[in-house]
Design brief:
The complex is a heterodimer of chains A (103) and B (395).
Chain A: E1 42-46, H1 56-60, E2 66-68, E3 74-76, H2 86-90, E4 96-100
Antiparallel strand pairs in A: 1-4, 2-3
Chain B: E1 5-11, H1 12-22, E2 27-30, H2 37-48, E3 55-58, H3 62-74, E4 79-83, H4 85-100, E5 106-111, H5 125-128, E6 136-139, H6 143-158, E7 166-171, E8 179-185, H7 187-193, H8 220-249, E9 256-259, E10 266-270, H9 274-287, E11 292-297, E12 299-301, H10 305-312, E13 317-322, H11 333-338, E14 350-355, H12 365-381, E15 389-390
Parallel strand pairs in B: 2-3, 2-4, 4-5, 5-7, 6-7, 10-11, 10-13, 13-14, 14-15
Antiparallel strand pairs in B: 1-8, 6-12, 9-11
Helix pairs in contact in B: 1-2, 1-6, 3-4, 6-8, 9-12
The chains are: A mainly beta (103), B alpha/beta (395).
Chain lengths: 103, 395
């Protein structure tokens, strides 16, 4: 299931608003933390015209931020993709390319 | 109402063990080390006799001992451990985890000199090395205080507005192995004073939470600021909790213990067992017409700056006794706390710092008198803040 996307800019909490000792009392709160900001060099781009729907990228994404859409194709959630490149490396038909962030 | 109490004769370590037994702790994990060993031996005796229902984890080191009680504390339990010297050294990195995760762990530290050279006797080089680890530190003067302050520590540490670990420091051998008579409360009275811990945030399968999460530069500062608030709240919370205990026991505890300080012109400031020697030295010098008072600092972290300043602001000559060396520093840790408090006060006093009692070396009242005489000479020569000097060292 696709995760609910939150607005990309998050307000940082002050010390009075935080739980004691770094405790996170709401489970599943990591979706609020957009780790896609770590991605600074390149991002994966899928050429869907050559995708065989093998789902190896979906299975191997360590984040995981690759989703299966209703039409059977896959989609990358760039809010969470750190640009590790495992999907591009392991794609058997090489339809995922790492593209410089600047492009 | 002051409750009925039993008079008993115990060594300091046994007194601490009795306080822990009566506090109904849930988990104890410790590794034996002199002069703390009698504490955990006595606790094991209580467990074997069925007088205590806590879980006891035998661990392979002090690093593991503190790590185990952190787990128990995060699960909402009341936890206790004890150590000294090298054991405290081995716990070092875990000390910061305990305070950072806001675990109200109580740890008795039978203060002992750090190796090398190896030595098993009292000084404050172990606890002073951990003074910035975010733990509260309370110094005991005798066996009765070791019992009382251990009991009271649980209530103070577990308060939601404090929620921090506490080291209850009792001088190795001088308290830990010295038998004195003391009064202990009935078990039922302690149970009422100290009901089971109710943790608002804890590891609970019914309500999953994350403990020990990562904090990057965007959040780490805020967590440290939050910790400062907790430890500073203890300046207000400790007297509140100690008053509550006074109502039951009749024994009064304050963050500092002033003696003859009203109108004193000279003050002897110390911590732990030497405070009694300082009081005796003060009374002897009073006989000679010198207006000497003694101030014992009971709560070292958080440091009761207001009380200490109030006690010393009208004193001309201050003798600060440090039972440890801060190598390469201008003075010892207690001196470094006190001196800035008196900066710019009306008539800047002479503050003389003495390093004494290392590795268990005896300190006598006559040595305190010598220290006072040296300080008075410094006053005459106009040397306001002389560099720390050793008391009773052979050249």
């Amino acid at each position: 299931m696709r995760r609910k996307f939150l607005s990309s800019k998050q307000k940082l909490k002050g010390w009075k608003e935080m739980e004691m000792g770094g405790t996170i009392s709401t489970p599943g709160s990591s979706v609020d933390f957009k780790v896609g900001e770590f991605r600074t060099i390149q991002r994966p781009v899928i050429d869907l015209s050559r995708c065989t729907k093998c789902y190896i990228c979906w299975a191997e994404c360590p984040e995981p931020c690759i989703y299966r859409k209703e039409d059977g194709f896959v989609e990358i959630d760039y809010d969470f993709c750190k640009g590790c490149g495992i999907c591009a490396e392991d794609c058997p038909v090489k339809c995922i390319h790492m593209v410089p962030e600047a492009e | 109402m002051i409750m009925k109490q039993k008079s008993v004769a115990l060594v300091g370590d046994q007194a601490v063990a009795h306080a822990v037994r009566q506090s109904n702790v849930d988990l104890i994990a410790a590794y034996p080390i002199t002069p703390q060993t009698i504490i955990v031996e006595t606790l094991n005796e209580f467990l074997s006799n069925g007088e205590l229902s806590a879980r006891y984890i035998n661990v392979e080191s002090e690093h593991s001992a503190l790590s185990a009680v952190i787990g128990g504390s995060l699960a909402g339990g009341r936890t206790f451990t004890a150590t000294a010297s090298q054991g405290l050294g081995l716990m070092q990195e875990v000390l910061y985890v305990a305070s950072g995760l806001r675990c109200p762990i109580i740890m008795a530290v039978t203060t002992r000199a750090m190796s090398a050279p190896i030595n098993i006797h009292a000084d404050h080089s172990d606890v002073m090395g951990s003074r910035d680890a975010g733990w509260m530190q309370i110094f005991c003067e005798n066996v009765q205080e070791a019992y009382d302050l251990t009991l009271m520590a649980f209530r103070l540490a577990e308060r939601d507005d404090v929620l921090l670990p506490i080291m209850v420091n009792l001088d190795g051998f001088l308290i830990s192995h010295t038998m004195e008579d003391l009064k202990i409360l009935e078990d039922s009275v302690v149970s009422e004073y100290l009901p089971p811990r109710v943790a608002s945030l804890k590891l609970d399968p019914e309500r999953p939470m994350t403990f020990g999460s990562f904090a990057l530069p965007d959040y780490y500062t805020e967590f440290k600021r939050q910790q400062v608030e907790g430890i500073e709240n203890a300046l207000r919370a400790a007297p509140e909790e100690w008053k509550r205990f006074e109502a039951l026991s009749g024994r009064k505890y304050t963050v500092t213990r002033p003696h003859f300080m009203d109108g004193a012109e000279i003050a002897l400031v110390s911590m732990g067992t030497s405070a009694g020697t300082a009081r005796y030295a003060a009374s002897k010098m009073r006989e000679d017409g010198l207006k000497v008072g003694a101030l014992s600092v009971r709560l070292f972290r958080p440091f009761p700056s207001e009380e200490v300043k109030k006690a010393l602001v009208n004193v001309n000559v201050i003798v600060v006794m440090d039972r440890t060396v801060s190598f390469g520093a201008y003075g010892g840790p207690l001196f470094n706390e006190i001196t800035p408090l008196l900066y710019g006060t009306n008539d800047s006093p002479t503050i003389a710092n003495f390093i004494y009692g290392l590795g268990g070396r005896d300190v006598t009242w006559r040595m305190m008198v010598d220290a006072t005489e040296i300080a008075l000479k410094k006053k005459k020569t106009g040397e306001k803040i002389p560099k720390a000097q050793f008391l009773g060292v052979r050249e």
